[in-house]
Structure formats: structure tokens, C-alpha cells
Specification:
This protein is an alpha/beta fold. It has a single domain, classed as Rossmann fold (3-Layer(aba) Sandwich), CATH 3.40.50. It is about 45% helix and about 20% strand. α2 runs parallel beside α3. The longest helix has 14 residues. It starts with a strand and ends with a helix.
Length: about 120
């Protein structure tokens, strides 16, 4: 059984690092990349994914807006979303996260093991 993970970040180096981390630590995983919320939504129209790793701070459409649209689509409403953010305002984050039924979040820089453990918890 192959697992599909969509990673969404406007930084190419972050995408590269996340994919390398996932490839090193998880077997039988296909990683899809998107550099914007808009591209992520386009991918999700064509592909089924098991988990989404989503950066919050992105130009045009931020992670909250992207997640809101993902939750509104019947085909993706139950896909686990892991938010990754550099700017962390606890109250605002919790308010917006609860509103869109976020799953997990990590603040940058994060411990690689923590992300892998979160991913493993969604796989099993």
C-alpha cells in the first residue's frame, strides 16, 4: 500500500527538505509538491492523497484559506492536515485551526522526528 503525501510550501528548499525527510524515514511513500495553495487545490482535483503538510504563510492564498477550501470539498474533507508555521500566535492559530478542524501543527524550526511521528500516527 503506497501512501501519498502532499506538501505545500512556497519555499523550494523547504519542499526539498520535507521530501528528503519523508523519503528517508517512511517506506512506500509518494510525495507530491505544490508551491502555492492554488496549485495544491489543482493537485487535489486530480489526485487522492492520504495526508497534507501545509505551510501557513504563503502569498496569495495562505494555509488557512487553502485548508478551508480543502475541508469544503467532499473528496478531501477528511484528509489529515498538518500545519507548519514559522509565525506562531497561539490564540489566533487555535481559533483559525479549530474553525477548519486542523489536525496537527509544527512550528519552524521543528524536530524531524516529531513530523515523522505525526505522519506515522496518521498512517496507522
Amino acid at each position: 500500500m503506497s501512501l501519498k503525501i502532499l506538501i505545500v510550501d512556497d519555499s523550494q528548499s523547504n519542499l526539498f527538505s520535507l521530501e528528503a525527510l519523508i523519503d528517508e524515514n517512511l517506506d512506500d511513500v509518494e510525495v507530491l509538491q505544490a508551491m502555492s495553495g492554488k496549485l495544491a487545490l489543482e493537485i487535489l482535483q486530480k489526485d487522492t492523497v492520504d495526508v497534507i503538510i501545509l505551510d501557513i504563510q504563503m502569498p496569495e492564498m495562505d494555509g488557512y484559506q487553502t485548508a478551508q477550501i480543502i475541508r469544503e470539498q467532499k473528496s478531501t474533507q477528511n484528509v489529515p492536515i498538518i500545519f507548519i508555521t514559522a509565525a506562531y500566535d497561539s490564540d489566533e492559530f487555535q481559533k483559525k485551526g479549530i474553525a477548519i478542524e486542523m489536525m496537527d501543527y509544527l512550528t519552524k524550526p521543528f524536530e524531524p522526528e516529531k513530523l515523522i511521528n505525526i505522519l506515522k500516527s496518521h498512517i496507522s
